[in-house]
Specification:
Elements: E1 9-13, H1 21-33, E2 37-39, H2 55-66, E3 72-75, H3 82-85, E4 98-101, H4 106-114, E5 119-121, H5 128-131, H6 134-145, E6 150-152, E7 155-158, E8 161-170, H7 171-176, E9 191-197, H8 201-213, E10 222-229, H9 235-242, E11 249-251, E12 264-266, E13 269-273, E14 278-281
Parallel strand pairs: 1-2, 1-3, 3-4, 4-5, 8-9, 9-10, 10-11
Antiparallel strand pairs: 5-12, 6-14, 7-11, 8-13, 13-14
Amino acid sequence: MSLLCAGDRVALVSPAGPALASRITAGAEVLRSWGLEVTAPVVRPWSLPYLAGSDEARAAEFVAAWCSDVAAVFSVRGGYGCLRMTDLVPWKDLPPRVFVGSSDVTVLHTELNAVGQSTVFGPMPGTSDFVDDPLAQARLREVLFTGTRSWTAGTPVVAGTARGVLTGGNAALLAASIGGPRWAPPVPGAIALLEDIGEEPYRLDRILTQLLRAGWFEPVSGIVLGSWTDCGDVSAVLADRLSGLGVPILGDFGFGHCAGSWSLPLGVTAELDASAARLTLL
């Protein structure tokens, strides 16, 4: 993944739900304080208030921003909607860019990683997880500008080591993508990153069962679990659904919908040492 530097131009896009204009402004100001030149998205009214415009408008904004003279593209927020526009984007034709997003944006990470583009799963500038969290801001900036290579955090769940390409993101969106026209399980040996928000234990059980039955976990050599905010106590569900896979698992790693979230690259090769609670890029 290319690194950013002061003076780079970056674009903000709204591929999912609408962000508050005040938060977009605040997030853009943080990025400008890093020395970046920022182009903000157009705020569009739409008949479905949970979408930041029609599928065609959101896809067109995404492609236009990506193909402009920018070093990076940031999604301003998640919510819902990315899954509706994936068929409208010419993924193989997109030039290399740095891309940042999380939550619902998981489906865009999957599409980009599938055509060989690495991405960053991190907090988005139109959300409180970024605007109101200086630690999460600092951790994203470090990944983008200096290239963080190793993270030590979390609690070992299943001991062991694994080496493979980092993949995954929001568990519900990974399950929702099953059966799509370009859907495929992770590459052999992949290390899966999983997190979610607002899913009660039985719903998380359903999500993980969907992924298991679809064969999504079959190529996976290791798992890193992030935050499960507003999901209740999901420890028993995670153990029941995942511990039998026979791969190393590191829990409570601190990425996703949580304070001070780590920003983690996807589509790059890393080594997981669950016993030492460490993830290292190779």
